[in-house]
Design a protein that fits this description.
By secondary structure, the chain is α+β, with helices and mostly antiparallel strands. Helices cover 25% and strands 27% of the residues. The strands form 11 sheets. A 7-stranded mixed β-sheet has the order 28-31-32-36-35-34-33, with helices on both faces. Strands 5-4-3-6-11 form a 5-stranded antiparallel β-sheet. A 5-stranded mixed β-sheet has the order 13-16-19-20-21. The longest helix has 19 residues. It is elongated, with a radius of gyration of 40 Å. The model has no long low-confidence stretch (mean pLDDT 91).
């Protein structure tokens, strides 16, 4: 948002330099991102002075040139060669002296030098208006009134005042500061001074020859609608002072009527809209919503299809304007306009925001309406604009002000405590100072007790509704820099529940990163097409787009979008992990579930000269899953084959009825939705469930065993439906004390085996913590193991 330094001074007295003021604005919560010096015309007429032509003679060597003697108020007169046909002795003119840089309306700037023109010395230039950016005429030099004092600077004569523009990064909650008046209010509170409102004393109704009735059919979307008419206006170019005000803040002047509405908007913060009254068919204005799909051509000459939720300003026959957003092509003010219908309204912020986003429109008016304007300033802005229209465009105010305001918007009322305010700020600000700051901000404050204030917050402060909001207001005006940092820091020991969630997450994240996984953060907003259960979906009431209209129910789909993004950029080998939440609506309650996602796709390793690349497999993912489970100290759990639509195939680890992790291959349907062609493997951890288990783990330290391990291998012929997990379970049940590890190092299925059979080669690690194993102990354990595998798993021991 751009704020003019000179414009601010119309509302509040300022004795600070622009640089000093920028620091003050930042300190009171209006962060100044930049300060730029701006001149109404390029170059600011620097170096130009007012002079008088004393003599003029014909150039001896050129028919179209004159040799003049010019006084600029100095001790020495200047000889200047001039080519203008209208130059004559006795004229008061604008002179560019030697060394001055001139900025013409067209072409590049150039510096005036002493030179010889056709043999005659020339020490300056007598200027035409287009040569110094003051106009378009190049018929001759500028001739000023005879009573102009010579020697004065041209910028003083033309009242060219340099300005400074503050670029303020306005936060969404500060709708009250979205104007010069709003910023001035804060400065007045900071300086403990008063701010001035425009003088409306000259407003009066001249006649009632142009009364246009207004009907508001949707008071919820339009709580207040004020209007007035001005007849007999002349639409023309605005005066220089008004054009300069708008150009300084980056606006393009259009005509005097439109420029006035923009001037009031940026001055007072109240958007206005001017209609050509003669184009309002049926002689009345109706504020309503129209039928779905109604065609409407906006000012930018684009035909738009309206929604049934769009609030429109209509005539008796057709829509004329999208309320609070954009005007229509056929109802606006142009050079033929003679009668103006002026609108000043308060629209529902949510309604305007949705309409603006629906049509992809962003205007100065919608910017303010979306954040919340002041419902109590509509008539003030209307009167101010009407006065300016009479002054700059002529005409007469031809109706009394129509003000439809059926349900007055009440100010927020609540109580605050001095003690709580000081406690939140961390300082002891005197009660009188707190009350003075609050009242200086325009908030009515009455003591109900020595420590309590009853407040009535004005309607323009839409963000101040609670005690903490008042605390923020007091703090920013009192000054963040005035809060002393204590020299002593107090600390206390705190008890943290096990496990430390953040530390545990960091441990797993570090482990995954060390193993080549990259952490991703995906948007929690996604498209409803990804939802497998729409009944539990959490929809966004005011979605940014149709692709961001629901909270994610799974971490998978946004992660698959990341896979597609990388694969489309020739980065097909990905290993991702994400800690995030999923969102659900269950039994009319909103539920957030912490999850951990692992995802791999592409090649197992980068291409090397001495080995070929291999694609990742389910077992690469399983290794990572097992590493996480082991790192968390979880040793006991059950496994089962997955039969879910989210997976093409996979398995899950669980305890009782609680799943710890489900992992496997992503389904083709999900990959197609995200436009991923390659196979993807992923794991979905119930992170909250894992942490609940971890907090019950007991950490036991023990020495590394002094006794050696022994490995024995077995080759088994088993049915295809027998899993490794079942064989592993049988082994541990056989001898929990001696059998420490079970692994599979070879699997074979082929036509050399009987139908329905497969071959497993297993290794077993045996160890006794108290003594060295003997051959007899080892042989006894292996015999029991082979017997149990044969009986319980139907295995045939291959020798």
């Amino acid at each position: 948002m751009k704020i003019s330094y000179n414009w601010l001074k119309q509302f509040v007295q300022i004795d600070k330099t622009p640089q000093e003021l920028s620091l003050i604005l930042t300190n009171i919560g209006l962060e100044v991102e930049s300060v730029e010096k701006v001149q109404p015309v390029l170059g600011g007429l620097e170096g130009l002075v007012i002079g008088e032509v004393l003599t003029r003679i014909q150039h001896p060597n050129a028919d179209r040139l004159s040799v003049t003697t010019v006084s600029v108020g100095g001790p020495e007169n200047l000889q200047i060669v001039c080519g203008a046909p209208n130059v004559a002795a006795g004229q008061k003119v604008v002179v560019a002296t030697v060394g001055t840089t001139v900025y013409p309306l067209e072409g590049e700037p150039f510096k005036i030098k002493e030179s010889k023109i056709r043999g005659e010395v020339s020490k300056g230039m007598i200027c035409a208006e287009d040569e110094i950016g003051l106009g378009k005429s190049h018929d001759g030099i500028m001739v000023l009134p005879a009573d102009v004092e010579i020697g004065i600077l041209a910028k003083e004569y033309f009242q060219m005042e340099d300005d400074f523009v503050f670029e303020i990064g306005l936060t969404p909650n500060r709708a009250d500061a979205a104007s010069h008046l709003g910023v001035a209010r804060d400065l007045a509170a900071y300086f403990r001074s008063e701010y001035e409102m425009p003088d409306l004393a000259s407003f009066k109704v001249d006649n009632e020859n142009l009364v246009i009735p207004v009907i508001v059919e949707d008071p919820e979307a339009c709580p207040r609608y004020s209007s007035v008419t001005v007849s007999g206006v002349t639409v023309k170019e605005s005066p220089d002072w008004l054009k300069d005000k708008l150009k300084v803040i980056g606006l393009r002047p259009i005509n005097n009527i439109v420029d006035i509405t923009n001037y009031v908007l940026h001055g007072l913060g109240q958007p206005l809209h001017a209609f050509d009254a003669d184009k309002i068919s049926g002689g009345k204005v109706v504020v309503k919503k129209v039928e779905e799909g109604t065609s409407f051509v906006t000012l930018d000459d684009v035909e738009r299809k309206l929604s049934a939720d769009d609030l429109m300003i209509c005539s008796a026959d057709a829509p004329m304007c999208i309320a609070g957003v954009f005007g229509g092509k056929t109802s606006g003010v142009d050079t033929e306009t003679q009668n103006v219908f002026l609108e000043s309204a308060y629209f529902n912020s949510v309604s305007v925001r949705k309409t603006a986003k629906r049509h992809g429109l962003k205007t100065d008016a919608s910017f303010r309406f979306e954040r919340g304007t002041d419902p109590e300033i509509t008539v003030t802005a209307l009167k101010y604009a009407a006065i300016l229209i009479k002054e700059l465009a002529g005409g007469e105010i031809s109706s009394a002000i129509s003000d439809i305001y059926p349900s007055h918007i009440k100010p927020f009322e609540f109580e605050v405590s001095y003690t709580n305010i000081n406690k939140l700020i961390g300082a002891n600000i005197p009660s009188a100072e707190i009350k003075h700051i609050i009242t200086a901000l325009g908030i009515s404050a009455t003591n109900t007790s020595p420590d309590t204030l009853a407040l009535r917050v004005p309607s323009y402060k839409v963000d101040v509704t609670r005690e903490c909001d008042i605390t923020e207001e007091v703090l920013r005006i009192y000054g963040y820099n005035n809060i002393e940092i204590p020299t002593k820091v107090n600390a206390s020991l705190s008890y943290t529940n096990r496990p430390d969630r953040e530390n545990t997450q960091n441990v797993i994240a570090d482990m995954l990163t060390a193993n080549g996984y990259a952490e991703i953060w995906c948007n929690s907003l996604t498209k409803s097409a990804y939802s497998k259960n729409l009944d539990e979906a959490v929809f966004i009431l005011n979605p940014l787009s149709s692709d961001l209209n629901v909270m994610r129910q799974s971490l998978l789909m946004p992660a698959l979008e990341s896979v597609a993004y990388n694969q489309n950029r020739k980065n097909a080998d990905v290993k991702f992990y994400e800690f995030g939440k999923t969102y659900h609506l269950i039994n009319e309650k909103y539920v957030e579930r912490p999850r951990l996602l692992l995802l791999i796709s592409g090649a197992k390793q980068t291409e090397q000269w001495n080995q070929s690349t291999k694609p990742v497999t389910f077992y690469n993912l399983k290794a990572a899953v097992d590493a996480i489970i082991a790192r968390l100290g979880i040793t006991t759990y059950q496994t089962d084959v997955l039969n879910e639509e989210n997976f093409a195939y996979g398995i899950k680890y669980f305890r009782g009825d609680k799943a710890l992790v489900s992992f496997g291959a992503a389904s083709k349907a999900d990959r197609k939705l995200a436009d991923v062609n390659a196979e993807v493997f992923y794991a979905d951890f119930d992170w909250a469930g894992l942490l609940d288990i971890v907090k019950k783990n007991k950490i036991v330290n023990r020495e590394v065993s002094k006794y050696p391990q022994v490995r024995r291998d077995l080759s088994l012929l088993i049915d295809k439906d027998v899993t490794f997990e079942s064989l592993k379970s049988i082994a541990f049940k056989t001898d929990k004390k001696l059998i420490k590890e079970v692994g599979v190092f070879d699997v074979y299925e082929g036509d050399k085996l009987p139908e329905g059979k497969k071959s497993y080669a297993l290794n077993f690690i045996l160890q006794d913590e108290e003594q060295t194993l003997t051959d007899k102990q080892i042989e006894s354990t292996m015999q029991k193991l082979m017997s149990n595998l044969t009986q319980q798993a139907g295995a045939e021991i291959r020798k």
